[in-house]
Amino acid sequence: MSTIANDIQHYRQQWGEDLLILGHHYQDSSIIPFCDAVGDSLELSRIAAASKAKRIVFCGVRFMAETADVLSRALDGIDNGRRVYQPAPNAGCPMADMATADALEAAWQHITAITPNVEWVPIVYVNSSADVKAFCGRHGGAACTSGNGHHIVKHFLDQGKHILFAPDQHLCTNILRELGYPPSAVCLWDRDLPDGGLTSADIQSATLIAWNGCCPIHAGYTTADLNNARERLPNAKMLIHPEAPSPVAAQADKTGSTKAIIDAVKQAVAGERLLIGTEDHLVQRLIANYPELTIEPIRPIICEDMGLTTPEQLLRVLKDWPEDTLVRVEDDLIADARCCVQRMLEI
Length: 347
Prior knowledge:
The longest helix is centred in the C-terminal third of the chain and has 16 residues, at 331-346. The protein is globular. The protein has 15 helices and 14 strands. It is α/β, with parallel strands linked by helices and 347 residues long.
C-alpha cells in the first residue's frame, strides 16, 4: 500500500465513527476503496443525514455535497456541529450550472403571470444546486431522481397540475415517453432567449415546460454510437442512462438510472452480453467486478469533473480540513431546499 493510502487509512481510524467518506459511482477507482459508502447522489446524501458522523467527506461534485449538507443540518436551524467537505472543490456539474435560481424565478413569474388560472408546480432534478432546490421548495414543488422521475411527474400530472421541469430536458422527455406522451407534449424553455423563446400562446397551451439543460456527457450519445456498439457486440442487451437524448434512449433495450443499470448487471446470467451507456469509471468497474459477463461501453465517456477527486486531495482534507473544501449552504436556503427533497420522499 502506498504512503498516501496508508496515511488516509490512518486518519480514517483516528476519526472513527466521527468520519464518513462518501463516493459517487462515477468516481475514479483509486478513490472507491477509501469510501464508507458508494452510491448515487441522493442515496449518499440520505446516508449522510442518517449518520452520526461530525465530518462528512463527499467525493463527488458540488451539488451532491450541497445536498448532503442540506439533509444533515439540524431541523431547527441550530448548528449541530456537522460539516460536509468536498476534496475537489472545483468539481462542479455543467448541467446543474445551466439552471440558476434567479433564471428559474424569472421564468416562473413570466409563466404564471400569463396563465393566472393554471396551477403550476416546479420539479427539479436532484442534479441541481441548493438554491435551485430552494426555489422549488418555495413554490410547492419537489425534486426527482432519474429512478423516480416518472413517478413524481405522474403524481403532479394526475392532480391536474402543469409542470416546469429543470434542468435536464432529456430526462424530462424520456420520462414523458415512458408515460406514453408524444414528444410534442414538451414545450422547451430556451434559457438563452427572452421569455424562453416562447409566445404567450405556447405557454397557455403547455402542460409541461422543460428547461433546456442537459448533461454534456450523456447527451453526447448518438444513434450512430448505438449502431456501432451493436455491430461490435451483436445480440447484447443495451442499457442507457435517461440523461441521453430521448430519440437515442428509445432505441436501447432499457433506460434506467445508475442504480437500475447496476442492478441489471447484478441480475444478468453468466455469459450474457451487455452494452452500457453511462460514465466510464462505473462501466470499467462493472467490467472488472463481473468477469463472467461480457460488458462494453456503448462509447467510453468520462465526466472530467468526477475525475478531479484524487487520493492526494482526499488526504489533504483528512489531514488539514482546509476551508476551501468546506461546503456550507446558506442558512436561509436550508429549509426550502430540504422541503423540496422531502416532498419527493413523501410522494
